[in-house]
Design a protein that fits this description.
There is one protein chain. This protein is an alpha/beta fold. It folds into 4 domains: about 55 residues, no CATH class; about 70 residues, no CATH class; about 120 residues, Rossmann fold (3-Layer(aba) Sandwich); about 70 residues, Nucleic acid-binding proteins (OB fold (Dihydrolipoamide Acetyltransferase, E2P)). Helices cover about 50% and strands about 20% of the residues. The chain has 12 helices and 11 strands. Strands 6-10-11-9-8-7 form a 6-stranded mixed β-sheet, with no helix packed on it. β10 and β11 form a beta hairpin. α3 runs antiparallel to α4. The longest helix has 25 residues. The protein is elongated and about 105 Å long.
Length: about 325
């Protein structure tokens, strides 16, 4: 919203400037004041339209385009002064040739420069490498599910997540709406999310920045997150499997916290004895079902008699399924 306020002020200043030029007797460029105001308004609107068209055009891309334009113009100047067109006597034809040269090579130079990477410039300037003296900021974005889950705050405190945490306003708004929900479960989740946000903001381990971008053309919060992560070249943290897969398809750096926790869980093999609480009967007769801390299911033979009790379970075998790993064991001791 603040960007449009600046644009409106700029448009008003351009309109006033056009009117002021029309009132200057020394210049005498425009006869009537209303014509100057319209020209100034049109000029300001044209620049704002260009601003909208180059939205998402990074400073690096602008620098590359400028370099390519200069290089293409230099090549066009060399060809123009090479003597190839000395026999063209008509100035109009010569002007058209020069215009075509500068436009053509300028365009080709810009396109090639924007498609190139920094290593390609070493061919133009051999043995020279441009190295940044400052370590670039690593931008991190947490989606709503990752914030409400709360484990990211623990990872930050243990220095396992470093960088600049970007908190978009549309994520804050979504958590706030959950906290104000009449549904008890949603309200508790939203309140937990606000608590985790305050904990992250008060942490001395990372820098937190509130991002104003909203992308009103995108209706889904997930789409807004993907768009923002791509624009900022940020790493996205989420618990949403589908969001993580879409991010991978769009070549956006993404961390699925469930996958991380699954990779860090302790390895369990046949013969290990665990203390587990049997929470419910199993599908087969005599079986009970228990769960590890990470939610992995353990099917216990003879466990039906120990529902709601903690027993020692000896793991007998491991079965890999499409949903994950399931352990099978027997009651070792009550």
């Amino acid at each position: 919203m603040s960007l449009w306020i600046i644009r409106i002020i700029f448009l008003a200043l351009c309109t006033l400037a056009g009117y002021a030029v029309s009132q200057s007797p020394e210049l005498g460029l425009i006869q009537y004041g209303w014509q100057g105001a319209i020209i100034g308004f049109g000029f300001g609107g044209f620049l704002i339209a260009i601003d909208e068209m180059v939205k998402g055009f990074s400073l690096r891309a602008f620098s590359a385009a400028t370099f390519g334009l200069l290089l293409g113009s230099f090549i066009a100047w060399l060809i123009d002064n090479s003597g190839l067109f000395v026999y063209v006597e008509e100035m109009a034809v010569r002007w058209i040739i020069r215009l075509a040269l500068f436009l053509g090579f300028g365009y080709i130079g810009m396109v090639l420069a924007m498609r190139s990477n920094k290593e390609d410039f070493s061919l133009i300037i051999p043995y020279v490498r441009f190295v940044s003296q400052n370590k670039p900021d690593i931008h991190i974005i947490f989606d709503t599910s990752a914030i409400i889950d709360g484990r990211v705050a623990d990872l930050i405190e243990e220095n396992l997540i470093e960088g600049v945490v970007i908190v978009p306003k549309f994520v804050i708004r979504e958590i706030h709406e959950l906290a104000d929900s009449i549904d008890t479960v949603k309200r508790e989740r939203g309140q937990r999310g606000l608590e985790i946000l305050n904990r992250i903001r008060n942490s001395s381990k990372v820098e937190v920045r509130i991002h104003e971008a909203d992308y009103p053309e995108e209706k889904s919060v997930d789409n807004k997150l993907l768009y923002l992560a791509k624009n900022l070249n940020a790493k996205l943290f989420t618990l949403d499997y589908n969001l993580a897969e879409i991010a991978k398809l769009q070549k956006i750096s993404c961390v699925n916290l469930n996958e991380v926790m699954r990779a860090l869980r302790p390895m369990i093999s046949s013969g290990d004895v665990l203390k587990l609480k049997i929470v419910k009967p199993g599908k087969q007769e005599g079986q009970g079902v228990a769960y590890l801390n990470d939610g992995t299911m353990v099917v216990v033979e003879g466990g039906v008699h120990y529902v709601n009790k903690v027993v020692k379970v000896e793991i007998q075998k491991t079965v890999q399924t499409g949903a994950g790993v399931i352990y099978f064991g027997i009651v070792k001791e009550g």
